Amino acid sequence: MDGLNLLVSVLEERGYPVEWRDMSGDIERLAKSDRRHLHVVVDDAPLCGPNILYCGPSYLRGFWYVDPVGIRNSSSMQTKPFRPEEMSQSFADTFTARLRSTFIDGNLSKFDQDLVTGFAPERESICLFLQRFKTPKYYPHYMSYPELIEGVIANRGGRRVYIKPHPRQKEKDLEIVQSYHDPDNGVEVTTHSIHGLLAEAAVAVSLSSAVLLEAQMHRVPGIVGAQVDFHHNMVVVRNPAGIRDALDRALAGTFHYEKYLAFFFAQGMVQPRLRQKAAERMKQILTEMGFGGASV
User: Fold this and answer.
1) What angle (nearest 5°) sits at the alpha carbon of residue 206, between those of residues 219 and 268?
2) Which of 127, 170, 262, 270 is 20 to 30 Å from 294 by CA-CA measure?
3) 236: part of which helix (H) or strand (E)?
4) What's the rounded Cα separation, in Å, for the pair 295 and 292?
């Protein structure tokens, strides 16, 4: 709640009293129609309106969205252009070095990670990171996870494939995932650490998992198969028939890993631990929305 609490402090400092309300259909309708108040939304629901501001945690711990358009898959980052030629390489390198120190060296991710004892991933492997199989509510997956898994296995060439289930994978989905486990033929289902797998990976694949952003820390190219707001510096695959081409393009492509991480997290998010800088960014956004101060 650190980002939301900081936003509340900024609003109160500007003279706006804050009320907390549970999200409901009535609140959604009110947020769209009521022009008298600022509505701060934490949910992923893409409401969009002149008096709606989204505030919610981003994909890495310590980073938050403060965005008038939406959060995560529906955020303004989805359509914001990524222009690596306009960014300082030294700035990007310094920022990414801090991310690597925190997340790779600390084996840190959204969910706790286990380094499986006695397990050494094969070099230049394909790593497939899963999520729940249920269709997302607010954005499209371009195929199902079984379709993605089968497409990757069919086009893996001589590379070993590691499939990592989501920590909250449903039991019935996990049974499907385990059916692909065939180590003798180069396919393994594993719970090994994200960072342990990515350290040896040639490419990372998922429909919409933010692990693909963690892959950028390892300088590993990503393939994504859904509407996401972090698509810019990876290959997008839109159907199972495109998986082979996506693998070829990812493995042969040139990507701007450090600059993209700086673009997305340093420039696109706020860091509440940097309280003054984060508060100034929140004030700028509020002013642009017409909430410069209750007395103005």
Assistant:
1) 60
2) 270
3) strand 235-236
4) 9
Strands 187-189 and 201-206: unpaired
Asked whether 146 and 137 are in contact (CB, 8 A), the reply is no
Residue 151 CA to residue 168 CA, distance in Å, equals 23
Structure-token pair, residue 212? 């693909």
Distances (CA, A) of 237 to 20, 141, 241: 40, 10, 9
Q: Tell me how far apart the alpha carbons of residues 246 and 5 are, in angstroms, rounded to a whole number.
A: 41
Pairing of strands 39-41, 52-57: parallel
In the block, which residue shows the tokens 């959604």? 28
> Which range among 37-46, 85-94, 96-105 shows the weakest confidence by mean pLDDT?
37-46
Q: Of 249, 223, 7, which Cα lies nearest the Cα of 127?
A: 223
| Segments making up each domain of the chain, as ranges | 2-80+269-288, 84-260
Rounded Cα distance, 172 and 174, in Å: 5
- The Cα 127–Cα 202 span in angstroms is 8
Instruction: Share the mean pLDDT of the chain.
Output: 92
**What's the pTM value of the predicted model, to 2 decimals?**
0.93
Q: Are 99 and 217 in contact (CB under 8 A)?
A: yes
Please report which residue ranges of the chain form alpha helices under DSSP H. 2-13, 25-33, 89-99, 145-154, 171-178, 194-198, 211-217, 243-252, 257-261, 275-288
Stated as kind and residue range, the H or E segment containing 55 is: strand 52-57
For range 253-275, the mean pLDDT: 97
Contact 164, 181 (CB under 8 A): no
Displacement of CA 165 from its chain's centroid (Å): 17
CA 45/CA 64 separation, integer angstroms: 16
